[in-house]
Each structure stands twice: as structure tokens, then as C-alpha cells.
Amino acid sequence: MAHTELGLRERRAIEDMLNAKMSVDKIAAEIGRHRSTVFREIKRNRYIDNELPNLSGYYGVTAQRSAVDRRARRRKLVRFIELRDAVIKQLKVGWSPEQIAGRLQLDGQELRVSHETIYAYIYGPDGQSEELARYLPHRRKKRQPRRRRTPRGLAFPPDRSIHQRPDYVKTRETFGEWEGDLMIFERAHGKTNVASLVERKTRFAVLFRNNDRSTTHLMNKLMSVMEPLPQPARKSITFDRGIEFRDWRKLKPGIGTEAWFCDPQAPWQKGAVENLNKRARRYLPRDAPVAALSNRDMKSICDRLNGTPRKCLGWRTPTEAFREELMKMR
Q1: Which member of 144, 188, 319, 320 has the lowest number of beta carbons within 10 Å of its beta carbon?
Q2: What is the pTM of this model?
Q3: Do β-strands 177-183 and 236-239 pair in parallel, antiparallel, or remain unpaired?
Q4: Hey, is 314 helix, strand or coil?
Q5: Rg for the chain, CA atoms, rounded
């Protein structure tokens, strides 16, 4: 059954039954709605009078007016084409809804939207038809309920934060500390993507193609790529908090690799792989037919990246630096 908004008649019925001291469960049963719908409606559209608190309460007509106003705000990106195009343009270059809304305010634009309005559009019918969610930092297909968004630590707990990562990893003193990310391509190429990995000390890059963006597929592929290396050469990997990495717990028992995570909206904390992605985009632009690339093609790109002398390595190539570190393990 399609979702339908509560109407004025239902809101008036809710008001009458609340005045009759009926419970939320009974009200929901009477109007044929889920109890959560009724509870959320009462909480969201309750009238608050700060000067005369005794007048505060739920009023059906007032609740209907509030709901209509809220829908109108949410539809602003549908009604104003130039504003919508500007928002979508910034989404596609990697700006978050918070950054877009904040910039509109800073620039003094007459037409503005809040970040919640942008999220509502992205996950609404229009935004979903354009697959706008794939441009978000965390790239979820569906937005989780508000109560689910806060405890994200369940997927990425505090003890896996980059701030808990040993200090020597940051200084690049030890070999075997990696960073990982996902390179996304234009919608026309489907779900195909490229995972990028870089060893922090030697800047050695590994790129491999995925035909799926599911976390299970990605982690299994990542482990199969990393497993041939000696365990000391794959001590840890630092990721962002993209949903593709939520199966990180497989790494420790699977290949003995620790996982660390950047702060939300802080990709610069894994600057090595961000730098790699910029270099790799020379050969893998967003419109590249990535699905048609073979394993040999991917290896050729890696060889080119790893065969380029780097000033930070004393003009050695990443391949040379990586081999030297492996030789020390023998």
C-alpha cells in the first residue's frame, strides 16, 4: 500500500480522542494507522504557547497547517529550478548538504534551503529517480530514520576512531599501514566502482575493480587482494565512514589487519589515498567505461602510478620503496 499523509479529518479525530484521554494505541486503531505514525504526528505538530502554557496542545487544524507548510518547504527544490540545479551541481562535485546550505546563507542568496530540505529532496521520489544519494559522502541509497542516524558508532565504534590509531602510523615511520577508499563513476556505468589502496610509507598504490558496491563484496575482494602480502605488510587500513566499509570486522580474523576510521565528513584525514585518487583520475575519469576495463588494464594503471618517481621518496618510485621494505622482512 502506498504511503499517504495524514489528512485534516484524521487530525481532527486525533484531537478529539486526545481530549477524551484515549491512548495512542487506541487512537491508532480507530483511524487505522500505525501507533508510531500517530505518536510522531502528535510530537511533530503539537502547538506550543510559551506565554500561555495552558493553551499548548494538539489542535487538528493547526497541525494540518503546520504539515502543509512543511511540505511546501520540502518542495522548494521542485518549484525553483535554478535553486535545484545549483544544489545538484554542488552535490555532484562532492559538497555535503550542510556545506551547500551554509554557502547559500553566506552568499546572501534570497532563495535558500536548509540541509534537511536537501536531504528530503535527495531521498524523495525526484532525488531517487536521479540517484542523487550516490553523490553524498556516505552514499546510502535510503536515509536511515533519525533515531538510527545517531548511534552510528555501532558500525564504526569510538575505539576504531583515527584518534585512537597509534601515533607512529601518522608519522609514516612503519611499513604496512594502508588507507582505502572507493572511486565512484557516472551513473551510466551502473554499480561498477574502483577500490583504491595506498601504503602510507611507500605510497605504493593498489587499484581493483568491483562490480558491486555491497560491503560484503568489497571486503571479500579487498581481503583476496591483500592476502598474498606478508602479514607485517598489511598491519592496518584507514577508511572513511562510508557504508561500503561497515563489514570491516572481517579484516582482523580474515587477514590480521586492523581497521581505523576518519571522523565523519573528514576525508582529508586519509590524505594519502585522497591524493592517490586525484592521480588515478587522470586515467580513470568519472566518465571512464570502468566496467569494460580488464584486470590487465587496472594493473597497467597501477604500474604507471607506482613507476613514477616521487620527491617524498627521494625520487625513488613507490615500487622501488615497496620492494625495499619487503626485502627487509626476509
Answers
A1: 188
A2: 0.56
A3: parallel
A4: coil
A5: 25
Name the amino acid, one letter, at 212.
Answer: D
- Give the separation between CA 32 and CA 54, rounded to whole angstroms: 30
DSSP codes joined into one string, 82-130: HHHHHHHHHHHTT--HHHHHHHHHHTT-SS---HHHHHHHHTSHHHHHT
Q: State how far the Cα of 53 lies from the Cα of 68, in Å rounded to an integer.
A: 24
Q: Which amino acid is residue 54, in one-letter code?
A: N
- Cα–Cα distance, 36 to 208 (Å, whole number): 44
Which residue type does 238 have?
T
pLDDT digit string (tens) for 132-142?
888 886 655 55
Residues in the chain: 330
Three-point CA angle 27, 29, 34, nearest 5°? 90
Query: Which residues, other chains included, contact 193 with Cβ-Cβ below 8 Å and sequence gap of 6+?
Result: 182, 183, 184, 185, 209, 210, 213, 290
Write out the three cell numbers for 66: 503546520
Residue 261, H or E segment: strand 258-261
CA distance 194 to 116: 30
CA 264 – CA 242 distance, rounded (Å): 9
Number of C-alpha atoms within 13 angstroms, CB side, residue 1?
Answer: 5
Give me the half-sphere count of Cα atoms (radius 13 Å) on the Cβ side of residue 11: 23
Q: Model confidence over 157-216: pLDDT tens digits?
A: 889 999 999 999 999 999 999 999 999 888 777 788 999 999 999 999 999 998 887 888
